[in-house]
Amino acid sequence: MNKQELFDKFIEFMGNFAQIKAIVALRDGFIMTTPFTICGSVFLLIANLPIPGYPDFMAGIFGPNWTDSLNAVAGATFGVLALIVVAGITYRYVANEGCDASMASLLAVSTFLIIMPPEIITQSGETVGGIIPKNWVGSNGVITAIVIAFFVAYICVYCEKNHIGIKMPDSVPGGVARAFEALTPGFICFTAGSIIFGICHHLLDTSMPELFFKVIQTPLQGLSDTIVGGIVIVGLQSILFWAGVHGPNVVGGVVSPLLLANSIDNQTLFDAGQLIGNPAAHIMTIQVNDVFVKSGGCGLTLGLLIASLMVAKSDQLKSLTKMAIVPGFFNINEPVIFGLPIVFNPYLIVPFILVPVIALIITYTSIAIGFMSPFTAVQVPWTTPPIIAGLLLNGWQGAVIQIINLAMAVAVYLPFVKTQDKACLEEEAAQQAMEDEG
């Protein structure tokens, strides 16, 4: 098997992987968390704007506890992220199968709560029960939420498609009938949750979220937080997108939960005043990938467009650049991905992969040496233009790193854009010659 055949097999495999029901539901389920994370980020951002003297100014107007109401919103979004995830993934999986997604998502939430730790120990050593522990319905419980979501979704779909359950007469209103039909999958899911709780609590002296966190989530977060892991993530995104597969969606469906958990862990350290200089702080977070590595879109193609504005002479490249530059400033790069195209373009595969990898190294290093602080749970809308996004997330340091990344992207893309432009000019000349002859 030669290199081309091997590459084709790889792309075929990743294309098939992207269409797996569970992966589609995982991706779509996490997309459903976007309103919660973005809204929560806005309130966190207001509470923690990186402006000197801002906290004292606000405290002088609203009092010393002015951040409490803002942090309450963060607690009801990021603090219950796993609850949102379990409902969202279940809903998307079941909906994609054409079944009753609303009832299934409610069953998933209840099943997830069954396996929660029954009590917590406060800082003073007091044991408190009868609560929903936010520590485990937040980012620490995401992996468990994914497992429960797939389990409940499968049970609900299987029961509905195989007509397993209580059937009501046609005269019964639809809402009532669906409620009774949900009794069977509900009993199955709740029984399974009860058994899991009993095994974990009485035999292992732990809970399922705590067990999964120790055995699965912590090692995966550690792996994702290395420079090597980061390079694999961003490189694979570009390779797949170049091959026509939406790399950010495919890769993001797997790694976004881990990167998001990293940022929420950092928020916990920040709230405790222990983020800066703490070796336990995570460097590789969702913001590093989404805001700094994909600034202007996957492959940092805003740099390509700026380079094209500087040197392009062909009508094709100049027209495309004029059309794509404004969306590019808002991180929308589909016009250049599919319009140039970058997909299967031999002239641009090298910079399309190399630029985000270099951007990752620059960003990762700037955090590692302390120039930028590790990112917390604060996020910005994905359409926030570069430089502004960096400024909001990490002050002037964030803006500087985005400017450096963008300048690097322009410099790396420039010679490849010249080559692409030369090829376009030759095509246009040949086309003109044919028209003249005709």
Low-confidence stretches: none
Oligomer: single chain
Order of helices and strands: HHHHHHHEEHHHHHHHHHHHHH
Give the overall pLDDT as a whole number: 85
- Strands of the widest sheet, in order across it, are 1-2
Model description:
With 438 residues, this protein is mainly alpha-helical. Helix content is 71%, strand content 1%. It has a two-stranded antiparallel sheet. A hairpin with a 5-residue loop joins strand 1 and strand 2. The radius of gyration is 25 Å and the shape is globular.
Task: Give me a quick take on this structure.
This protein has helices at residues 3-18, 21-31, 34-47, 54-62, 68-75, 81-96, 101-114, 134-137, 142-161, 174-181, 183-203, 208-224, 227-242, 247-271, 286-293, 301-311, 315-329, 334-339, 349-368, 388-437; strands at residues 119-121, 127-129.
List the helices and strands and how they pair.
Blueprint: H1 3-18, H2 21-31, H3 34-47, H4 54-62, H5 68-75, H6 81-96, H7 101-114, E1 119-121, E2 127-129, H8 134-137, H9 142-161, H10 174-181, H11 183-203, H12 208-224, H13 227-242, H14 247-271, H15 286-293, H16 301-311, H17 315-329, H18 334-339, H19 349-368, H20 388-437
Helix pairs in contact: 2-6, 2-14, 3-5, 6-7, 6-9, 7-9, 7-11, 9-11, 9-12, 12-14, 13-14, 13-19, 15-19, 15-20, 16-17, 16-20, 19-20
